[in-house]
Automatic annotation (TrEMBL):
This is Sulfate permease. Residues 421-535 form the STAS domain. It is found in: Membrane. Keywords: Membrane, Transmembrane, Transmembrane helix.
Length: 545
């Protein structure tokens, strides 16, 4: 847990300046993400206050900036689609509470590693597709449209001009101004848009129009809700809450790892689960939507000099000052400008480079990436993720059922053995050495047995079958039965089976077969080299006699 009074004076100064800079960035982003999530500005800004303090108390990353993020906002919008305003008012904070509860449950049950079943191709494809969807949604704001983006006659030209100028300004500020001023582009264009709204009302550019009061928080108490409505809403939101929880954890820990690596530190997934879970619980009780660690704001926080989570506390306090003393300014924040800010923020999330790298390294990952991308883009966020995860599991099972198995031979003048298809090696016509590069389990035992049968058929002179177990780390009852079947079948064919490099835990299980009696006169060897030499000599002696 972070203890603020242990900070040195210099660290307090650095964290204060970093916190203020991030606050200038998070205010326009939060309101923009609120539009994306279809929630009022007060709910969006609430997500940029107390949850940050909760993470500072319980989180582990020194510089991660927690708050509203684009992907989660999109998922909140999808989870509350077709709901009335009253239903959204119940669902949004309830969703944050559910996410926080799930994250804390994962923490206390030590189940954090389960999220590893969602591979990077799924996340990469999902993130790119979600970013494209978010940008399309911003076009409605940037063009001043009620709905139809593709009908040019409905475009509002002042909105189009303002959003275009905002994008150009953001690009110029980001690319040409020195750090940390280049991080203030969103604030600059937002202020410029507000000046236009105040001085040129005849342009009829749409503003937020939220008549804010000093009471930004709508405290949420699930115990005061109608029981039937609450239970129905819980069931409706549960799938979305689970997926959002996983994404919050994955995205946030990825960001935390980047910061930790920069400082040669390590992060604790359990600590992150504690911090993120607490932040979302507080978000729910303060009426906000779910929060996560944002990559862009974290990098700004880091570059601005943040050295501890105290910077997040200063950010939250600065946002609280803003919403309590100048909330009326929200009325003049222009939607085309906010649309440009969000589009610019998520543009960097679109990454097509994995398609090229996956194609060269592992084509299956390409299929998973494309399935996730197209699934999200066509069917929606939840369906896209489920398709990607389902395809990942299908490939995992397929790969488990078809392990790599190699016929090996000895590299001349060495004691090393390699795949006959990859290296020039020495083999013996009467000795067939096969290396199994996976455990023997119910999923692959039949395929391993089939491979051995085909290999022996292709090598009709085989008298000794040497199975190299150097990579066999597990064996189940199906694997034991198949191994026994292989040994007995080959013995009937006049072929002796031998084992080499069997690990201790595997040998313990093999004893249940009464292995030495089953193999006899076959043997178990400590190394492949020892086995190969012994079998060569034995075979040569048999032929001499």
């Amino acid at each position: 847990m972070f203890v603020p009074w242990r900070s040195k004076p210099l660290e307090l100064g650095n964290n204060l300046s970093a916190g203020i800079i991030v606050a200038f960035l998070i205010i326009p982003q939060a309101i923009g993400y609120g539009l994306l999530a279809n929630v009022p500005a007060n709910i969006a800004l609430a997500a940029a206050t107390l949850p940050l303090i909760a993470y500072a108390l319980f989180g582990g990353s020194r510089s991660m900036a927690v708050g509203p993020v684009a992907i989660v906002s999109l998922m909140v919008a999808e989870a509350t689609t077709d709901m009335s305003a009253n239903e959204i008012a119940l669902s949004v904070p309830l969703l944050a509470l559910m996410v926080g509860t799930i994250l804390l449950t994962i923490r206390f049950l030590s189940l954090g590693k389960l999220v590893n079943f969602i591979g990077h191709p799924v996340i990469q494809g999902f993130t790119s597709a979600a970013a494209v969807l978010i940008i399309f949604k911003q076009l409605e704001l940037m063009l001043g449209l009620p709905s139809d983006v593709f009908n040019v006659n409905t475009w509002h030209l002042p909105s189009l001009l303002l959003s275009t100028l905002s994008l150009i300004s953001l690009i110029i500020v980001k690319g040409f101004m020195p750090s940390p001023l280049n991080k203030l582009g969103p604030l600059m264009v937002l202020l410029a848009g507000m000046i236009i709204a105040l001085n040129l009302p005849n342009l009829k550019i749409e503003t937020i129009g939220y008549h804010a009061t000093g009471d930004i928080f709508t405290l949420f108490s699930p115990w005061n809700q109608d029981t039937n409505a609450l239970s129905n809403t819980l069931l409706t939101l549960l799938p979305s809450a689970v997926i959002i929880s996983v994404l919050v954890f994955l995205e946030s820990t990825s960001v935390a790892k980047v910061v930790a690596k920069k400082h040669d530190e390590r992060i604790s997934p359990n600590q992150e689960l504690m911090g993120l879970g607490s932040a979302n619980i507080i978000a729910g009780f303060s009426g906000a939507f779910p929060v996560a660690g944002g990559f862009g704001r974290t990098m700004v926080n880091e570059e601005a000099g943040s050295t501890s989570p105290l910077a997040g506390v200063f950010t939250a306090l600065f946002v609280l000052l803003f919403i309590n003393f100048i909330p009326e300014s929200i009325n003049y924040m222009m939607k085309p400008v906010l649309g440009a800010i969000i589009a610019m923020a998520v543009w960097s999330l679109i990454d097509l480079s994995p398609l090229y790298s996956h194609w060269k390294i592992h084509p299956q990952d390409n299929a998973i990436w494309l399935a996730s991308f197209l699934g999200v883009f066509i069917l929606g966020v939840e369906s896209g993720i489920m398709i990607g995860v389902g395809l990942s599991i299908a490939f995992l099972l397929r790969n488990a059922a078809h392990p790599h198995i190699a016929i090996i031979g000895r590299i001349p003048n060495t004691s090393h053995f390699r795949n006959v298809r990859r290296h020039k090696v020495e083999t013996h016509p009467h000795v067939l050495a096969i290396r199994i590069d996976e455990g023997l389990t119910f999923a692959n035992a039949e395929n391993i047995e089939d491979f051995i049968a085909r290999a022996i058929f292709d090598h009709p002179k085989t008298r000794h079958l040497l199975l190299v177990f150097s990579a066999v780390n597990q064996i189940d009852s199906d694997g034991l039965e198949r191994l026994e079947s292989i040994i007995r079948r080959q013995k009937k064919e006049g072929i002796l089976t031998h084992l080499a490099e069997v690990k201790g835990p595997i040998m313990d299980k093999l004893q249940h077969l009464h292995l030495e009696k089953l193999l006899a006169p076959g043997q178990i060897y400590m190394s492949t080299h020892e086995a190969f030499e012994a079998l060569e000599n034995q075979n040569d002696n048999e032929h001499k006699s």
